[in-house]
């Protein structure tokens, strides 16, 4: 299934001329607006968006509507690579001097890789969001499925897709193909997260036809 098919099957997007595309640094401002949906302490900052969309733009996908006034950014999935088998707090941050760091080398501080690890074998989702106007319509689930389809379609190498979520979102992510592996050790933004790896990526990521 393609990302387009995932959106087409969502009743909440019917007639809205929705599409997804990879994000870039040109989308930083609109990303900040969309991210304001989250509680302030959990939001990705403008600087961190600039970092993520500079270092690994191919791992982030935006949801847009074509309108008479241009493309409207209504949601996104933000990702980066990591070597760990679960999301770590350090992977949620960014190196203080990232602009002077080699693009193909991880930044390691006190034995922990900070932010995007270009040599990482796993893909970490750090943000899944749609603006309030479009919530409660099944659009978030369609966006998550479109992201997984995008990763597969583009053959982005990843043994696993990983994310963390609060307990009230566990059923949502399970319905989108993720598995609850229990409380996460990650204490980002105060903790209280659960580890939810995607349950079907490894077979095709390793080149096995299923």
From TrEMBL:
The keyword Acyltransferase applies. The keyword Transferase applies. It holds the Pfam family Acetyltransf_10. GO terms for cellular component: cytoplasm. Gene3D superfamilies: 3.40.630.30. CDD domains: NAT_SF (cd04301). Keywords: Acyltransferase, Transferase. One of its GO terms (molecular function) is aralkylamine N-acetyltransferase activity. Residues 18-210 form the N-acetyltransferase domain. It comes from the Eukaryota. InterPro entries: Acyl_CoA_acyltransferase, GNAT_dom, SNAT-like. This is N-acetyltransferase domain-containing protein. It comes from Penicillium canariense.
């Amino acid at each position: 299934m393609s990302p387009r098919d995932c959106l087409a099957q969502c009743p909440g997007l019917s007639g809205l001329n929705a599409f997804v595309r990879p994000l870039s640094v040109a989308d930083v401002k609109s990303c900040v607006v969309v991210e304001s949906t989250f509680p302030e302490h959990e939001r990705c900052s403008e600087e961190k968006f600039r970092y993520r969309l500079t270092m690994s733009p191919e791992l982030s996908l935006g949801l847009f509507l074509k309108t008479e006034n241009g493309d409207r950014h209504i949601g996104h999935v933000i990702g980066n690579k990591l070597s760990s088998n679960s999301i770590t707090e350090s992977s949620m941050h960014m190196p203080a001097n990232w602009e002077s760091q080699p693009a193909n080398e991880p930044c390691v501080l006190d034995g922990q890789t900070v932010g995007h690890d270009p040599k990482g074998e796993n893909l970490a989702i750090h943000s899944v969001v749609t603006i309030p106007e479009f919530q409660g319509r099944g659009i978030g689930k369609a966006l998550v499925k479109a992201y997984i389809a995008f990763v597969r379609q583009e053959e982005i190498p990843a043994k696993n897709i990983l994310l963390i979520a609060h307990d009230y979102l566990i059923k949502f992510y399970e319905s989108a193909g993720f598995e609850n592996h229990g409380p996460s050790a990650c204490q980002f933004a105060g903790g209280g997260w659960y580890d939810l790896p995607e349950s079907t990526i490894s077979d095709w990521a390793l080149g096995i036809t299923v």
